[in-house]
Write a structure and sequence with these properties.
Chain A: It is found in: Cell membrane. The complex is a heterodimer of chains A (about 270) and B (about 260). Chain A is built from ten helices and two strands. Classes of the chains: A mainly alpha (about 270), B alpha/beta (about 260).
């Protein structure tokens, strides 16, 4: 049925189609806002420091930071800092995540292990790994390995806690199914406990990733001779603030990149959600 | 005792004890089920029927008493359970869910594939074999559960209100599908339900339980010839009388437990 409305001919399909188009436009608008917001901040910064609203000595305009970035890149120095930091993050991340998952699964599955290890985890968790840095340096020196250990130490806790929570959150009926159908301990571990805990575990890994970046910068500020944190700290002390900002923006960029990467991994390995 | 007794339950009692307070879930349950018999256990909610089933399924230890499931081969598992609505494992595909029991027994791949495909086809899920359960409706998920239990080819099947969460139409469809698969395999089944209609349609014998402590109070043979349909059960006068008799019993039990 066609209806006459305000002199125009409408039918329900066209109406709905137009509604749908409006919704699409709105969605696109939201996406646009997400892209605009960082650009807006950078522009505002640029204008403010060029017009003298911000002190150019403390807040060099983004365009100047970009050109410093390219200078540092061509001199090859920046590349060394980046690769050193990335290596430390990757190694520290793995060294924290893998034991975190294994110990977390064991704690989740076996109550005696859980009750034995929980207090130890609880006691160590509130101590910032950075506060332990002096001890770590005494134990492992000022080389790469002490940074790797520091990162591993801070990544470990969110992973362990989320893995335990992940196992304990598995629906009881799934455990019953495994038992009723005669799953062996190893099958149970691989087919039920690990995949069942995976979604919550991955959230812990996401958190661990963010903490790894926080930690690397601080760890490289003390007792290091290279890395992005070292770059930030020495540039600051030499009052080379453009170089310092390059370091800060790099950290922010890698944080963003890792988050995107992990979210992609999540979608790939948890397809049942 | 009869030659063809498949399950014998002797004086089974289960008490749950909690902080000076104990609840007798089931008390002195003695029951024998014949080979190929379809038995429905009906009782008010909280009467311990699920506890009884979980004991038979090896998920709960009885406080006292014994049970025995007759088996003449080492190959078959003793029992497989069809769980209530959430029994399908979400991180396994439809196919992997149906193959779950077989894979846990580490049977040859080719055999597992054949057996799985056969039962996927039986429950009409062949097209969906590679999907994850989240993409399927409640009725389809219960089909997975049923296929998984039958594919495992156990001595007996235990079913814990498998259709309780389904809507009425789906329930009728699945009940008839279950009967058709069952009539092929002639497995011994213990089926728990609180629906009288369901019990009358499915079973050879209905075991009525009282609540707290859960005891067997009556057993009713359902003489209706098979294959049965819901229409026949509904149209049969004798069945209507049975329905009322069972309902009266349940009502009394519910009233009693309220006091």
């Amino acid at each position: 049925m066609h209806e006459e409305k305000e002199g125009k001919l409408y039918n329900p399909y066209e109406m709905e189609q137009q509604e749908w188009k409006k919704r699409q436009v709105k969605e696109r608008g939201k996406q646009l806002l997400t892209i605009i917001s960082p650009i807006f901040i950078l522009l505002l910064w640029e204008i403010c420091s060029r017009t003298g609203v911000l002190d150019i000595r403390f807040f060099p305009p983004p365009s100047a930071i970009v050109s410093t970035f390219f200078e540092l890149m061509t001199s090859g120095m920046l590349w060394t800092h980046i690769s050193v930091s990335l290596y430390r993050i990757a190694a520290g991340f793995l060294l924290g995540v893998i034991p975190g998952i294994i110990i977390g699964l064991l704690m989740g599955l076996y109550a005696p292990i859980r009750h034995f290890i929980s207090p130890i985890v609880m006691a160590f968790m509130p101590i910032p790994t950075l506060a332990l840095l002096p001890i770590i340096i005494i134990l492992f020196g000022i080389g790469d390995f002490s940074k790797v250990v520091t990162i591993a130490g801070s990544v470990f806790f969110p992973v362990v806690i989320n893995t335990v929570a992940g196992v304990l959150n598995i629906e009881k009926v799934h455990l019953d199914v495994a038992k009723n159908y005669g799953a062996s301990p190893s099958d149970f571990f691989i087919r039920i406990a690990f995949p069942g805990a995976l979604p919550v575990m991955l959230e812990g890994i996401q958190m661990g990733q963010a903490i790894a970046l926080l930690t690397i910068v601080a760890a490289e500020m003390m007792g290091a001779t290279s890395g992005i944190g070292y770059l930030i700290w020495t540039s600051y002390k030499a009052f080379m603030l453009k170089e310092m900002f390059v370091g800060l923006i790099l950290i922010s960029f890698f944080g963003f990149l890792f988050s995107l990467f992990l979210r992609g991994v999540q979608r790939k390995i948890v397809p049942w959600r | 005792m009869d030659q063809s007794v498949k399950i014998s339950i002797n004086d089974l009692t289960k008490v749950f004890y909690k902080k000076n307070n104990s609840v007798t879930a089931i008390q002195n349950i003695t029951l024998s089920v014949e080979e190929g018999e379809f038995v429905c256990i009906v009782g008010p909610s909280g009467c311990g029927k699920t506890t009884l089933l979980r004991i038979l399924a090896g998920l709960e230890q009885p406080s006292s008493g014994t049970f025995y499931i007759e088996s003449d081969t080492d190959f078959r598992p003793l029992q497989s359970m069809v769980f209530q609505e959430k029994g399908v494992i979400p991180w396994l595909t439809v196919e992997e869910n149906v193959a779950f029991g077989l894979n846990m027994r580490h049977l040859p791949k080719e055999f597992v594939r054949k057996q799985t495909n056969y039962y996927l086809k039986k429950v009409g899920l062949s097209k969906f074999s590679k999907l994850y359960p989240k993409e399927l409706s409640g009725g389809m998920k219960q089909r997975i559960s049923i296929a998984r239990a039958f594919a495992n080819d156990p001595e007996i099947l235990l079913m814990d209100e498998p259709f309780a969460a389904l809507d009425e139409q789906n329930k009728f469809i699945l009940q008839e599908e279950l009967l058709s698969i069952w009539s092929e395999t002639k497995k011994t089944v213990i089926f728990i339900t609180h629906s009288i209609d369901e019990a009358l349609l499915l079973s050879d014998r209905i075991v009525l339980m009282s609540s707290q402590p859960g005891e067997i109070v009556d057993q009713i043979k359902v003489p209706l010839p098979r294959p049965r349909t819901m229409e026949q059960v509904r149209a049969n006068l004798e069945m209507a009388e049975q329905f009322i008799a069972i309902w009266n019993h349940l009502q009394q039990e519910v009233q009693k437990s309220r006091k």
